[in-house]
Design a protein that fits this description.
Rhopdopsin 7-helix transmembrane proteins, two-stranded parallel sheet, 4 strands
């Protein structure tokens, strides 16, 4: 026997945590001006928005339709699945973009930040368009179907698309889980390795690649960008505490919101949690696509509710991870709370 109030309460708490956590991140990014200091932060904002969509659109529709989704109608049924797949794709693509951006900056550009706000915005919009295009198939394959074995309406794969849906499960496994995870892990390991070489003075990249000149640095020298060569590098906290000093000096200090290693650790943790927690319902969905009568097995419905609840919790756990690794966003959140 399923306790309706219990599951509704658990999912309601999950919705509240998702909305609250991601709203805090958005406020922190806006108050800290992290995008102007570090343009790739736009990719983090894209990840947060994607998770927010899960809490606002996907989870409420899922919990209210646990026992019968007849109220949704065919259109809302398709729309919910479309938003779910689009936001899921956009979140993992955003994580991949952050990893690739930091990899290029450290390994190929030797510390020179070449990503501007305009470029990051354009890439983010294109990633959302690609995610939406891939999510269209969810609106095509899913529909409101009456399940005689359970005596209720459910928003599941249409009977005529069961075979196609089975193959798409394997496509999702490669494109949404395996490939992005490999890219993120490769970028993370390569970036951390290069950072380790710099710390030990073994990075022998020619200075001409950074400065645009023909001379080469002496052994053990540290690679600097043109701005860093003439400007003292300070943290965002130092810049926020000493705004007058920057104005008197006539040149704005280079602000380092977070270290490259912290960025890669943050993205790696987000990617690992994404794969583990999002993969939990995957075997269940694959089995359901092959055998719709699988739902009649005892205790399957509570198992389904538990798997999806854990999977949805990833949307607010991400907010905690970002706050932990991004000190500039934490300061922005504190600044916003102080103003209130």
């Amino acid at each position: 026997m399923i306790s309706v109030p219990l599951w509704v309460s658990l999912y309601s708490v999950c919705i509240g945590l998702i909305v609250l956590g991601n709203t805090i991140i958005i406020v922190g990014i806006a108050r800290s001006k992290a995008i102007s200091r570090n343009p790739p932060t736009i990719f983090i904002l894209s990840l947060v928005v994607a998770r927010m969509c899960v809490g606002i659109f996907v989870v409420p529709a899922y919990i209210t339709g646990i026992f019968s989704e007849e109220y949704l109608g065919s259109t809302l049924c398709k729309l919910c699945h479309f938003i779910n797949l689009t936001s899921l794709n956009a979140s993992i693509v955003s994580s991949v973009l952050v990893a690739i951006c930091k990899y290029l900056e450290v390994v190929w550009w030797h510390g020179v930040a070449k990503v501007t706000v305009t470029k990051a915005t354009v890439v983010t919009l294109l990633s959302w368009l690609a995610s939406a295009a891939y999510g269209v198939r969810a609106a095509i394959l899913n529909d409101l179907v009456f399940l005689p074995v359970l005596g209720l309406w459910s928003c599941v794969i249409s009977p005529g698309y069961v075979t196609i849906a089975m193959y798409m499960q394997f496509v999702d496994l490669v494109l949404v889980f395996v490939a992005p995870s490999c890219v993120i892990m490769f970028c993370t390991l390569a970036t951390i390795r290069r950072l380790g070489d710099r710390i030990h003075g073994s990075d022998s990249a020619p200075r001409s690649q950074v400065m645009g000149k023909s001379e080469t640095p002496s052994k053990g020298s540290t690679e600097l960008s043109p701005i860093e060569a003439v400007t003292p590098r300070r943290s965002c906290a130092e810049e926020d505490k000493n705004p007058r000093e920057a104005a008197i000096s006539g040149s704005k200090p280079v602000c380092a919101p977070m270290s490259e290693k912290s960025t890669m650790c943050m993205i790696s943790m987000i990617a690992v949690l994404f794969v583990v927690m999002t993969m939990l319902p995957y075997p269940f969905n694959l089995k359901l696509a092959l055998d719709p009568d699988f739902l009649t097995v005892p205790y399957i419905i509570p198992l389904k509710l538990s798997l999806y609840l854990v999977s949805f919790c990833n949307s607010w756990i991400n907010a905690i991870i970002i706050l932990y690794f991004r000190s500039d966003i934490r300061r922005g959140v504190c600044s916003g709370c102080w103003c209130l």
